[in-house]
Every structure is written in structure tokens, then in C-alpha cells.
Specification:
The chain is an all-alpha fold. It has eleven helices and no strands.
């Protein structure tokens, strides 16, 4: 595939993601709840890769495996977030954004929330698009990348399931989850997510697309410094008694032994 053809396929992927985002925004307006964008996030990453696979005359040898793995990630994440948010008001993060951007936030949210997410999703999808398009043969780096990605997906799925069971038990209401994988890291789901994307980047790198390293770097920065750990811990620190002590004795990200 020529660079021009690859750029054309990627631009079509961006356009498809924008249309998907527009539909999600239209659903959010009557609900007055832009939290729907969180449930759509996985698909905003998956759709560009699907489009590249569809417009390519001959998808590369990695296409099926990469798309199945990314599809499983997107579906699991979407179902998990939608189930967790059912019956809940708009997420506090978006309520803050809404207050800061009234009046007419319903229109501003199209670019402040949904448009930004579409662009980020397309950037994160870079390793998927590159892996799908490359005709390069399988090699050892592919195996290492897929192993890391699968382990990351399973790790975050188990962490989310453990937290969901904990929250569903009325005996633990108001308590801090410090069991299972959460005993060794305050954010094991985020750790698994990062492992997934670094693994998928290794697959893209095996196909020659080392430049797609921006994708896992972006995900890592977002989770550790922007919308993941900082916002969540600030919120939990204010509303969950005992969380400060949990922070003192438990590593934030990489699983490790507890302190004290």
C-alpha cells in the first residue's frame, strides 16, 4: 500500500468516527447527558480500523487477529460502562464542564466533548490501522505484542469484574475496594488498559509502523496524568473515607506489594 493510499484510508476512518460521534451526540441532547460518550469510546477507536480493513484491497495477515482483539476490547468496555452508568445522572466530570460552558452547552458539547473524543479515538487507533494495512509477515515481535495485549485485556476485565461485585454487595457500601487485584494496585484496570495498547503497538511495530508509538504514549498520559488517575483519586479522596490510607499503602498503577 502506498503512503497516499494509507492516508486516504485513515482519513476515511476519521470521517466514519466523526459520523459515529455525531450520532452519539444526537442521542445525548434530549437526555441532557453527555456521559454517553464514555460508552461510545471503544467504538470511536474500533471504527477507523474497521474502515481501513474495509477499503483495503487486501488486508494484511494481522487484520483478523487485531480486529477481533480490538472488537472484544471495545464491546467489553462499552457494555461495562453502560451497565455501570445505568440509572445514574450525568457524570460529575461532565456536569462541571456543562456548568462552565452554559448557555447552549448542548451545541458546544459537539466539539468540546464529542469532537475531541473522535479525534483522540482516531489517534489511538493508529496501531490498529497500521497493523491491518501492513502486508508484512508475522514475526516474533507480533507474538510478544499479542501476548501482552491479551494479558492486558484479561487483567482489566478481571479488575473491573472484581470492583463491580464489590460495589454490588451492600455489606461493602462506603468502603474502599482493596481486594483481589485492587490489593496490589489502586488502578489495576488502567494498568491492564496500558498493557493492551502497548501490546497492540508492538504488533504495529512488527509490521514496520514504529511511528504509531504516539498511541500508547497518549493513552498512558491520559490515564496517568489527565482523565484517569488524577480525576478519580481527587473525587474518591473527597467522598470515600479511608481512601487516603489506601493510597498510602497501595501502589497507584504498577501492581506491587503493599506498604505497611
Amino acid at each position: 500500500m502506498t503512503p497516499a493510499a494509507g492516508l486516504h484510508a485513515a482519513s476515511l476512518g476519521l470521517g466514519a468516527g466523526a459520523l459515529f460521534t455525531l450520532a452519539a451526540w444526537a442521542l445525548s441532547v434530549p437526555k441532557r447527558d453527555v456521559s454517553i460518550v464514555d460508552s461510545a469510546w471503544g467504538y470511536l477507536v474500533l471504527v477507523p480500523a474497521l474502515v481501513v480493513a474495509a477499503v483495503m484491497p487486501n488486508a494484511g495477515p494481522r487484520a483478523a487477529v487485531v480486529l477481533v482483539l480490538a472488537g472484544a476490547w471495545a464491546l467489553r468496555l462499552s457494555v461495562h460502562i453502560a451497565w455501570r452508568h445505568r440509572g445514574q445522572p450525568e457524570d460529575r466530570r461532565y456536569q462541571t464542564i456543562r456548568r462552565r460552558n452554559e448557555p447552549h452547552f448542548q451545541w458546544k458539547s459537539l466539539y468540546l466533548v464529542f469532537g475531541l473524543q473522535a479525534l483522540l479515538g482516531w489517534m489511538v487507533a493508529a496501531p490498529l490501522m497500521a497493523a491491518v494495512a501492513s502486508p508484512a509477515r508475522w514475526n516474533t515481535l507480533d507474538a510478544l505484542g499479542l501476548a501482552l495485549a491479551v494479558c492486558g485485556l484479561l487483567y482489566e476485565a478481571v479488575a473491573d469484574a472484581q470492583l463491580a461485585r464489590f460495589r454490588a454487595n451492600p455489606l461493602y457500601r462506603g468502603r474502599v475496594m482493596d481486594r483481589g487485584l485492587w490489593r496490589y494496585s489502586r488502578h489495576p484496570n488502567y494498568f491492564g488498559e496500558c498493557c493492551l495498547w502497548w501490546g497492540l503497538w508492538l504488533v504495529a511495530a512488527a509490521a514496520g509502523a514504529w511511528w504509531t508509538v504516539l498511541s500508547p504514549l497518549l493513552m498512558t498520559v491520559l490515564l496517568l496524568k489527565v482523565s484517569g488517575v488524577p480525576l478519580l483519586e481527587k473525587d474518591l479522596g473527597r467522598h470515600r473515607p479511608g481512601y487516603a490510607e489506601y493510597m498510602r499503602r497501595t501502589p497507584a498503577f504498577v501492581p506491587w506489594s503493599r506498604r505497611g
